[in-house]
Amino acid sequence: MSRKFALCLPVALALLAPVALPAQEGEGDSYLLVAINDWNGVLRAEWMDLRAEWMDLRVQQVDVLTVGQGRASARLFRQPFRWVSGDPRRSAQGTALTYLVDTADLGANGLDPAAAEAAIDRAMGTWSSDSCLQKVALSKRPFDGSDVDIFDFRYGFGGDGNYRKADIVHAGFLPPEFFEQVTGPGGGETVLAMSVTFIYVDPSGRPSDADKDGYLDTAHNEIYYNQAFSWAAGGMDLQSAALHEIGHSLGIGHIGPPPEAVMNPIYAGVERALHPMDHAALCSVWSSWR
Prior knowledge:
6 helices; nine-stranded mixed β-sheet; 290 residues; alpha/beta
């Protein structure tokens, strides 16, 4: 099978030995932490199997938007992570962040794919128009029909895609079984959407900081929506769910409540504009972008 997302570099096999991370480095939802460790274990195994290919990224954080009772996010390290401007490892488009909408999996429960794509574009535009994101453009790339996401492959959904097609990928709607596998019992009924953030690691398997800014280097972000819910008129609002998940793509964690914010971890109906705390969180992440 072709590993299209692997960076083919001649790296000595001795450097690919996995690094054991202390238990206290993991925090948040315990079931999600198991899923993260399991997925990363597959990447490490592929390192050893492919010999000449360096699987240079790991899952760093999984965030979920729920209906009803909220759940904690899960991450492997306490340190925050940031996108690296112009990063050649992810085929960066200068100082812009690129995004892509996988329209092949965008219809769910009567939702028109074109309308769904437009809703996601509007959500991207809401963040892009904030004054604290003026230094960076959110640039949309066309979907060419190829597989552009990788996290779902581990769970038997989709193929082994090319993550370098775009920085942020809206991967479409997946069945509740996928969310159940990742988030644990009941996840298929309560998790509305999910954001998966990958970071780069160095040849020893440790997180990299290429620009020496004190933050881990973000490699990729994928967003999945749960097709178990009704997304047509009168059901769950896709634009609102996308608005929340894009906040994670931009490096923002959950906020409150209180205060009220788009980045609250529980779906509360239609949200089309950022709240003051969302703006403040965005500024805290992007004020140093260069």
